[in-house]
Amino acid sequence: MAFDPQELRKKYNPEGSLTWKMQQRMLEVLEVIDGICQRHGIPYWLSGGSMLGAVRHQGFIPWDDDLDIEMLRPDFERLMKILPEELPQHLALQWYTTDKNYFFQFAKVRDRNSQLFERNGYDKVWKEHGIWVDIFPLERVPLWIHKLSNLTFGHTYKMVRTAKRVEDVMGKVRRLAALNRNIVFPLLRGLSMLLPTRYYDFALGIPYYQKSLKEDYLPVRYVPYEHTKVPIMKEAEKCLAYRYGDYMQLPKHPGSEYHSEDVRIW
After folding, report:
1. Of 1, 66, 94, 129, which sees the most CB atoms within 10 A?
2. pLDDT tens digit sequence for 25-35
């Protein structure tokens, strides 16, 4: 290992620091989600930088201020129905069924005993603003169809990003999101079923790309993560190499990108 894990922690997330407190709260949220998924037989695994942290740091990337998980879309749809019934009072599902202005095509579970705002500004009119865990659905889809879905759905991001008053455009945003969710995406999924691709990616309308095979995901592996163990995909190293190249090397400017600001935890 080309770095000292203890030195990194001492520099970026020493115990008691704001980043450390955020990470501990996210881990508490994940443990609740994990318990619900275990009870209902829903497989999930860490995603993106969270999976990278598990493999490279046996926990959070020291400067990371978010936590992501992913699962196959049928399991995601089941979980969206289960979470509102089983989450404790201090946690809330953020999805279009629970927050009318939430337009992302992945969900969040929010901690109600904290508050922060994302630097991208998309969350201005959302109902919940606590520390979160992102939940990403994955589905079998050709890359060009995935990119097409991001073109049709991308106008929602543009409207929110460029509006002088976000409240003035939310009606249009909700209608466009519903049009994609109820008409455009089902048509694209139907087309995907007719095409000979084996690759899975983030679900339609999610502007990230991850080319993997279904057999890369399952069965998951449990690995050490902070004081607990968490699931990662079966071929985690293969996926990390595809996305990050030499993923065991630290970035040139660690800690330079944070998702959140104005963080308060109580």
Report:
1. 94
2. 999 999 999 99
